[in-house]
Specification:
5-stranded antiparallel beta sheet; baseplate structural protein gp8, domain 1; 33% strand; 496 residues; 3 domains; 6-stranded antiparallel beta sheet; mainly beta
Length: 496
């Protein structure tokens, strides 16, 4: 049975995932963990999709920070506009047997069909520039025009017909900071056009979003359903003339279920060489099916010739620019979390590193066994000892010189004076045991002569109940060092 998961299914899943972050009763957190080294710290292991891996993520979890709807966005693969690069043009009929014109992708969503400029403006390529022989040429003129309706046509070096660019949106300054990476950019749909679902609170399906004053709102609102901006010559034909010359132009109206589209056909030496829109009032609208009449002497302005065929390229449903998420394939999710200094009253220690980040849904807080809504949570135990002078972060401590199934064992994650933040470690008996008051402290299984002893250990449990919630995403990295005057900007990229 032949079947396909459509791009809209993937963007739908991304939208549902994002919406969950704003739903009542749902709590999502970015977490950090793994303060101790990997076997090879320069080559962190790939996470395994297994129960054992999940347990390991819980075991070395250090702290968690809540993620809100302001911290998450649809994302796209980043294609920078670069002079000298060719870009794929939008067509409505790409497939595995009819691939994109530059990168040979089987669909537009996997093609290099849009760009972001150094001004953080995003443009969709409606037409690749070609030379007089009809071969693709590189883009050499950066698109800059911000227009709600008329695409920008550039005069690229070596092109007889230049690139055609449709302005989509500008990435705002705050979104640049939060969601732009070297490889990904954010994308949103405001929902300015009735019936188009927006990604914000005002852009709801079936309604019209509030005008936020942006150029993107105007572009979405002005998008023309079923307009035709570009035509592909599928056969050049031969022996064409207008009665006096074999090099001429003629205007021909597009046939189909829409109206108003008129193209200018250019013939050279009796063959069809190029087709373009007649003028900016001739894009038409309402087309879902479109074609040309047979190009022969029955067409006014053509006296002879045959064999030329043209494919009109119909805009997406609702028009170019109406729905950037679905038009460009926003099936990635970008999650941003900033760890600012020792925030959360020390939940995020600044005297150690971490090697694992992830996303967890609905962790339970230990204080009342309810799903946490706190801004941040510590996942570490805490003990206070009489004298921690000889102890350091990453030391492993026990409450006995020799291990057994009753031995408390932990790794020091952070040290502030005599206060230690600990991650539990399984003892030689395969058990987790917490430290208790009046325990002595032994370092690395050493004998009593070098023990750091305490006449009274006071203990505090983590704010998160370990092994609760659902770990949705895990990423293993090399060591990320922290400092008291440092901010870590964490960006998670999730592909749906």
């Amino acid at each position: 049975m032949a079947a396909i998961i459509t791009e809209k299914f993937r963007t739908h899943n991304a939208r549902q995932f994002i919406e969950d972050f704003g739903e009542s009763g749902s709590s999502n957190y970015v977490f950090i963990g793994r303060p101790h080294s990997w076997t090879d710290d320069n080559n962190p292991p790939a996470p395994a999709n297994s129960e054992s891996e999940e347990i390991g993520a819980y075991e070395d979890m250090i702290a968690l920070k809540k993620v809100t709807t302001a911290d998450i966005s649809h994302g796209l693969v980043r294609y920078n506009w670069t002079s000298g690069t060719m870009y794929d043009e939008y067509r409505d009929n790409y497939s595995s047997s009819n691939t994109t014109n530059v990168t040979s992708a089987s669909n537009f969503f996997d093609a290099r069909g849009y760009v972001i400029t150094d001004e953080f403006k995003v443009y969709k390529c409606l037409r690749t520039g070609v030379n007089s022989s009809g071969s693709n040429v590189a883009s050499t003129v950066k698109p800059t025009t911000v227009s709600t309706t008329v695409p920008e046509v550039t005069s690229d070096t070596g092109a007889s017909v230049g690139y055609m660019w449709k302005f989509m949106y500008t990435v705002g300054a705050s979104d640049v900071i939060k969601f732009v990476t070297n490889d990904f950019i954010p994308v949103k749909t405001i929902g300015a056009k009735s019936g188009v679902a927006g990604s914000g609170t005002n852009g709801q399906f079936g309604s019209t979003a509030t005008d936020d004053g942006s150029a993107q709102f105007d572009v979405e609102n002005a998008a023309v359903d079923g307009a035709i901006y570009h035509y592909v010559v599928t056969a050049a034909g031969s022996s064409y003339s207008d009665g006096s010359s074999t090099t001429f132009t003629v205007d021909v109206a597009v046939e189909g279920d829409g109206s108003g589209a008129v193209a200018t056909l250019s013939f050279a030496s009796g063959a069809l060489s190029s087709v373009s829109f007649k003028d900016t009032s001739s894009f038409g609208s309402g087309y879902k099916r479109a074609s040309f009449p047979t190009l022969n002497s029955s067409i006014s302005g053509i006296s002879a010739g045959s064999g030329a065929t043209i494919k009109p390229i119909i805009s997406p449903i609702n028009g170019h620019g109406a729905n950037p998420i679905e038009e460009l394939g926003g099936n990635y999710v970008v999650v941003n979390s900033r760890l600012e200094f020792g925030e959360g009253s020390g939940d995020f220690p600044t005297d150690n590193d971490f090697r694992r980040i992830g996303l967890i849904k609905d962790p339970v807080q230990s204080s009342d066994s309810t799903i946490s809504t706190a801004t941040s949570l510590t996942a570490t135990n805490q003990v206070t000892v009489d004298n921690a002078t000889s102890l350091s972060v990453d030391d492993v401590i026990t409450n006995a010189a020799s291990e057994s199934s009753t031995t408390a064992k932990a790794r020091i994650v952070s040290k502030t004076g005599n206060v230690l933040k600990l991650l539990p470690v399984v003892n030689s008996g395969g058990e987790y045991v917490n430290f208790a008051n009046s325990n002595s402290i032994f370092k690395d299984g050493s004998d009593t002569s070098v023990d750091v002893s305490s006449s009274g250990v006071s203990s505090a449990h983590p704010e998160m109940t370990r092994f609760t919630g659902q770990i949705l995403y895990v990423e293993n990295r090399g060591a990320v060092s922290r400092a008291a005057d440092q901010i870590e900007d964490i960006k998670l990229i999730i592909e749906m």
